[in-house]
């Protein structure tokens, strides 16, 4: 089983890689090769030395010949330009999200057309495919039959890719699957250019002793999933057998991964409960209409019938999401949490371009 | 008002051109220039000599510089590879339908970005965007909020273009509108490579004294519109003012043009009623699974609320559709119709590659 993970050194790529190396099997076969493709490969990346891991650094579209130099069984396509980037630079988003995905699908198709295995292509789509069009407001509860009318370039690009994947699958070029990711919270590390980035920032920054800004009205309801649940969802959609039986993947529609629906106010209350008043006090509410327009257009409540049929379930509570973050990233927590005796980590300096 | 019609010498392009030259206005302004773009321009095309008409012959994508050499106010984009072509040659369909439409949108965007007028771009989409996915069967009545799950490459390409147009409109690059055409019947002239072509052929060929094959079970229900109603619909969507008032175009969703729903058996009965037993007897039923799979996946019943709000209505009856064809194309009718005294035209030889 030769597996490719695009965006393999991104936050989710690393979590997925760790999970695959821990399991050592996928779809019932041993993981023989795990090829991580990414434009940015950190200098210190211990996973790159793992005997099963191979790294291809560069622009995915330019490196497809290398990626498909040997037969690929599974591609998990995580690489993507994020929402705010695509909004500020339309052409960048079209190239990174639409053209690159199409080129990836064509490379996979060329492999099967040449008599090689038909690659299983798993696409990480997004809740951002949905949006509230004035003429087509979203229903109170969204499911896979709800018409996506994206209100962002990112959402449109994801939606178009979903349809390419459905069609390449219908024609037998690939075995494509689509998992629509909820907003993944709490993302570790530095802030990124996603419009939803603050949903991690308002938890992550205070826990590391840093101030954070909440750019939306705290009454806003959002659909979240922890990194653990998200990786679980991607793996489940990857492994699902096609069919119409229980636990099988029927048809070619995307699967909305399970969502925990909370208000931003509930998130901040949870932070206060877990980390205390002083930590929660590091968050300042300062609504930004540009962020509210994007994030506010996404649905918050989902009927997760399809995901549940695959055995997936949402996080139990936002508190469990925060506690999982603390458990998985102790190095990022520099405040002393009530009820714990472990010394906090050293305060983190903000990374990235700020 | 400088208007571009792509596919301007196709069957609908010619009807639209005639309508525009007869009206002489569009969107309340005089038609100053009508630029017809097409790969194929017939040798004898009197319209090409009309003082308001300009012809650009060639591949649309390669001729965009010429098309946008002077400011364009309205583009009606009819040019398209048809369904059966796209099914038999995937790359051709992607290039002709997706890449060309995107290039057209980018050319229109370049005009507005350079300070020129923001072109109104009217895209002729299709009922083929809908399809019956096993996991998402179509509801008995389809409307604009029904999730399109295309079951053909052609339908997927049309659906993707619809979403590009919605997004280019949201961003203010163009003023895009989408009219989803029903199967247009009766098309004059030679058969084309559309899977739905037989729906015209089973009327047109017998009326010209030629045999015809019906490749579907006559119980199949289909959604049709006459060329007259279709041109009327395209013009109405083109002219509609954006807004949420009565008769205005709200949001960025496509408009399903009104449909007349009939069974193929009812179509054949109408032919018998209009033209007599001998003419109806020229049709042989011989189901072809490939055609049934494509045409049978399209919905047949529509709730045409949006179209009616724009003042559009379906054809009164299939008989009115057939009689309009006879009226508009007397040269193509070579059988004597009961109740008429006019001599029939000379029998037509089949054109095209057959």
Automatic annotation (TrEMBL), chains A, B:
| Zinc found in the keyword field | no
- The ranges of region (Disordered) come to 335-354
Q: Which Pfam families match?
A: Epimerase (PF01370)
Which GO molecular function, any one, fits this protein according to its record? oxidoreductase activity
Record-annotated membrane-spanning stretches: none
Q: Which Gene3D superfamilies match?
A: NAD(P)-binding Rossmann-like Domain (3.40.50.720), UDP-galactose 4-epimerase, domain 1 (3.90.25.10)
Q: Which UniProt keywords apply?
A: Carbohydrate metabolism, NADP
The record places domain NAD-dependent epimerase/dehydratase at 3-210
Protein name (database record): NAD-dependent epimerase/dehydratase family protein
């Amino acid at each position: 089983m030769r597996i490719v993970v695009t965006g393999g050194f991104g936050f989710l790529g690393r979590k997925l890689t760790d999970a695959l190396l821990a399991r050592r099997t996928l779809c019932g076969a041993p993981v023989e090769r795990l090829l991580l493709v990414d434009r940015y490969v950190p200098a210190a990346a211990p996973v790159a030395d793992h005997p099963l891991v191979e790294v291809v650094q560069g622009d995915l579209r330019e490196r497809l010949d290398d990626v498909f130099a040997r037969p690929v069984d599974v591609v998990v396509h995580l690489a993507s330009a994020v929402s705010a980037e695509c909004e500020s630079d339309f052409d960048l988003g079209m190239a990174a999200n639409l053209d690159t995905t199409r080129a990836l699908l064509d490379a996979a198709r060329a492999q099967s057309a040449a008599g090689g295995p038909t690659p299983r292509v798993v696409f990480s789509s997004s809740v951002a495919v949905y949006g509230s069009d004035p003429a087509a407001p979203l229903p109170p509860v969204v499911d896979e039959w709800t018409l996506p009318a994206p209100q962002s370039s990112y959402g449109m690009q994801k939606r178009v890719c979903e349809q390419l994947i459905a069609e390449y699958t219908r024609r037998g070029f690939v075995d494509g699957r689509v998992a629509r990711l909820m907003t993944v919270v709490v993302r570790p590390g530095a802030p990124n250019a996603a419009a939803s980035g603050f949903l991690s920032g308002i938890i992550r920054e205070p826990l590391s002793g840093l101030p954070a800004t909440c750019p939306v009205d705290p009454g806003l309801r959002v659909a979240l999933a922890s990194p653990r649940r998200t990786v679980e969802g991607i793996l489940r959609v990857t492994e699902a057998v096609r069919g119409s039986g229980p636990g099988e993947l029927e048809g070619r529609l995307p699967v909305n991964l399970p969502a925990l629906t909370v208000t931003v106010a509930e998130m901040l209350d949870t932070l206060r409960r877990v980390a205390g008043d002083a930590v929660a006090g590091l968050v300042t509410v300062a609504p930004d209409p540009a962020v509210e327009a994007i994030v506010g257009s996404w649905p918050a409540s989902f009927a997760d019938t399809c995901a549940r049929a695959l055995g997936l379930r949402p996080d139990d509570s936002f508190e469990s999401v925060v506690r999982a973050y603390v458990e998985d990233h102790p190095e990022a927590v520099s405040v002393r949490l009530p009820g714990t005796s472990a010394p906090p980590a050293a305060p983190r300096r903000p990374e990235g371009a700020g």
